[in-house]
Amino acid sequence: TDDKTTGEVTDTVNYFPAVPAGGYVGPDGQLIEYRNPESQSKEPTWLLGVGYRPVTDILTYAKYARGYRQGSVNIGGTTGFDTHDPETVDSYEIGAKTSFFGKFPGTFNVAAFYNDLQDQQIQFGYFKSSGTGTTAIVNAGGSTVWGMEADGSVYLTESVLLSASYTYLDTEVDEVIFPTELQLISPQPVSTTTASGEPLPYSPKNKYAVTASYLLPVDPTWGDMRASVTYAWIDEMQAVAEAASIY
């Protein structure tokens, strides 16, 4: 993958004097900044996998993948913090896919995975020297993500299908290298979407769903029509770093 991103920015800040309530005075000062941030990145990605069938209805597999999220520009950032580099992930997975027959035919699949993120793109909120708030995306951290997934389905009758899925997810930010340059720019404390030792944002530990569906007895020329009902559950999850909620 080869990526190039460019941006053109005219950042205008107007300063207004304090006036008595009910009055209005136009700006008495103005700050204009022109920037042309540019980012270019390239990275090879791949997927290596092996599979084995011990019997006809069971497939076991293992795979290793290298992922890459391109670097880019952030036109809202300030000079030096308006571009960011690529983020990479090494992903490992083992699992099995099975099917079974008989009176209650169906399927069952299970997988376990481990992901290692490096040069992680993390969003920081801060105030410019002009006093206006903005955000920057910086390559500031690394995280590990591991868990398991399972899903299955079974035909209770020829028309009634019951299916279920479950995911367990454990995420942890291994490190966040705080960009001290942002702290020097910002007259107020810098806030971030995540922090070292905390889970990644919007990463619930447990999630599951159960669905029951019924194949309606309609004319086959209309195709298959199903009525279904689903119950889903998602754990509580952290949205931002705990410290960011203080400000």
3D architecture notes:
The protein is mostly beta strands. It is 2% helix and 60% strand. It has 1 helix and 15 strands, in the order ββββββββββββαβββ. The strands form 4 sheets. Strands 5, 6, 9, 10, 11, 12, 13, 14 and 15 form a 9-stranded antiparallel sheet that branches. Strands 1-4 form a two-stranded antiparallel ribbon. A two-stranded antiparallel sheet has the order 2-3. Strand 5 (46-55) and strand 6 form a beta hairpin. The longest helix has 6 residues, at 180-185. It is elongated, with a radius of gyration of 26 Å. The model has no long low-confidence stretch (mean pLDDT 90).
Give a summary of the structure in a few sentences.
With 247 residues, the chain is mainly β. It has 1 helix and 15 strands, in the order ββββββββββββαβββ.
